Amino acid sequence: MVSSVTALTIESWTLYPFGILLIAARILSRRILLGSFNKLQIDDWIMLFVAVTFTGVIVSVNQVSHNLSNYLPPGAAEAFTSEEHDNAVYGSKFVMILEQFMLANTWLCKACLLILYHQMTLGLKHNKLVKIVGGYCAFGYVLVQILYLGVWCRPIQQYWQVPVDNSQCASYYHHLITSAVFNITSDLMMLYIPLPILIKARLPLKRKIVLCGVFSLGVLVILSAILNRYYNFTEPYGSLVYLDWYTGEAATSVFVANVPHLWPLLSRLFALGAFNSLRRTTGNSSGNGNSSGKGFYPKGSGNHKSGRARPYDQHGYIQTESEERIASAGAGPGAGTTWPLPDSKDGAGLELGSMGSKPMGYVATAAGGNEKESEHRDGIVKTVQIRQYSNEV
């Protein structure tokens, strides 16, 4: 029968290469999309550091499982030999190191997703929610660290003292509660950001299901966090089950933070084409009303009438011939792009312009779309007429 230590070793080192490979795949996917490693954005660099914290979690979990700690039944430490005492001190230090790596891994993955959501919601009211959730996450991380290092266990050396004078220095009970509260509530808030937009968007059902599925993976992180704390609080002394869930939660966070960025790589490897391709269209892209079917250009690129359409914008978000991403109000060409607007129901065409009495920002133009300018009492606004085309050749 395999011991719990051996089982944990196998599980953790099995999950580890998957996490690292997924991070590498994300970086390669971004390289394909952006054209150069020098153009990687802040969330990509953060994810490279997550590879370090994820490695730290896996190493620390195994060190804790192979050594004793100060989390012991009453009176047990007094019966230790000198070697066992030193081993428990060593293991207790790694428990503290594990907790630091785990906090960093969890909150850095949140940061990567929030940066993604920020870029996706530029110009939408949801962008304010992203900033609020970001502030909540930052506040939660700082407060958890202050309480962990400066309040729950004083002096801090008691975290690796054997035996401890304060039970909180061994059980981490108060710390586990506070960190779980901020972790789970912030995940729930982050889950709320993309899903309502996707649900309300007029997208083909299959595409909507896929996108909702990708952005609902946060549910797995929440479930892992809950089970992590459950086994922390219910398992008896000496149980290693909670370490299984530390590993599982850290790996799940890494998976969820990277999956949304993988399509360019998958498309290149398996010749899948653009995720947005619903149907093949023919004709030229010289502005005569025919679309090449290759997607939108980044706004402000000046190439919207070229035959080489690019299906992604500068942030790596997909643009299609039947979906428009509106720039932030009042912004000029090249402003950040946001979520697609609803398609026209009749398929004949969709004209976008100003909303209310104030001029809208510029709207991304489709390859082959007809662009026109109209005078508005508050200024000049650009509108775009997007036509949808059939499969007929």
Spell out the key features of this protein.
393 residues, mainly alpha, 3-stranded antiparallel β-sheet, 11 helices, 3 strands, elongated, disordered C terminus
Main structural class: mainly alpha
Q: In which order are the strands of the major sheet placed? A: 1-3-2
Described by strand count, sense and barrel closure, the largest sheet is: 3 strands, antiparallel
The whole-number mean of residue pLDDT values reads 74
**Parts with pLDDT < 50 across at least 5 consecutive residues:** 277-393
Number of strands: 3
Q: Which sequence of SSEs, written as H and E, runs from N to C?
A: HHHHHHHHHHHEEE
> Separation of termini?
65 Å
Indicate the overall shape.
elongated
- Number of H/I helices: 11
Radius of gyration: 26 Å
What do you see in this structure?
The protein is mainly alpha-helical. It is 52% helix and 5% strand. The protein is built from eleven helices and three strands. β2 and β3 form a beta hairpin. α2 runs antiparallel to α10, α4 packs antiparallel against α6 and α9 runs antiparallel to α10. The longest helix has 39 residues. The radius of gyration is 26 Å and the shape is elongated. The termini are far apart.
